[in-house]
Amino acid sequence: MQRDDPTKPDRNLALELVRVTEAAALAAARQIGRGDKEAADQAAVDAMRHVLDTVAMDGVVVIGEGEKDEAPMLYNGEHIGDGSPPLVDIAVDPLEGTRLTALGMPSALTVIALAERGAMFDPGPCVYMEKLAGGPDIADLLDLERPLPETLALIAQRRGSSIRDITVVMLDRPRHHEQMAAVRAAGARVRLIVDGDVSASLLAVSENAPVDVMWGIGGTPEGVISASAIKCLGGQILGRLWPRDEDERRRAVEAGYELGRVLTKDDLVQGEHVFFAATGVTDGDVLQGVRYGRGEVATTESLVTRTRSRTVRRISARHDRAKLRELNAGFDI
After folding, report:
1. CA 45, 320, 304, 206 torsion: positive or negative?
2. Which candidate in 5, 25, 128, 214 could, as Cys together with 200 as Cys, close a disulfide (CB 3.0–4.6 Å)?
3. 24 with 49: CB under 8 angstroms?
4. Distance CA 168, CA 212 (A)
5. What pLDDT is attached to residue 328?
């Protein structure tokens, strides 16, 4: 029997990663509805970092909470894990939807992605990218060079429906107003979200989803994280770097980035040794949030994917919060 290369991530990491996102979700959930997004984010970061220390891997954070002088933990370039093989890149969003959590709104997630060393796209100075994502049956129709209304018309034709039945999910941002108007003028629908375009990307590629595509100018790191999941879930995500100003554009060009290039999921995350895990914090279309039962019981729902085997797991878990606090240095979970 052929054994996996020990320097590359193997199947055992899938369930290790879900422990990480579960811990972060349980910690962040204590801040739901309390109006303090910084406290919610810090709780998720602390719990995620604590559990990552126990994972057997030599990991480097490629996409994290920011540069070292901006983030005391899970900063870009930080080494995590116990230092043993495999050698991996890590992308984390300890709490996608800090505002959603603070206000008790839907679709907050804790998220992590992992790939073999050197596989993940480094966004460099480019904080934002234009993104378009959709499911397997329309992946070949997605095109950032074509006007979005034309693509929506092709999707409607492919699916044997009217463009009036097609829905685009996008962030509610002023920079999207022109595209919103164009989509509506074409007859299609727009579903606006406050935050959380990883969740929106996952929704767009899911079966029987209430939306058909995700479009928008959002975080480049979130694009890499979304691509990690979509490589297994199926479908496509396209991205094109979107500098916020001339200074960012200049720095990107000087660093060698091709600003007009359209990046696919395989450009954003290379190879087949890719894992993704997410746990719901608040209830959403993709995952149920943390719920509390009698006494010290909490339940979570998570999504875990492994690209090499194309395995997609949904994991419902019951947690004894008192025992977890005992095992995890007294974290409030």
Report:
1. negative
2. 214
3. no
4. 6
5. 73
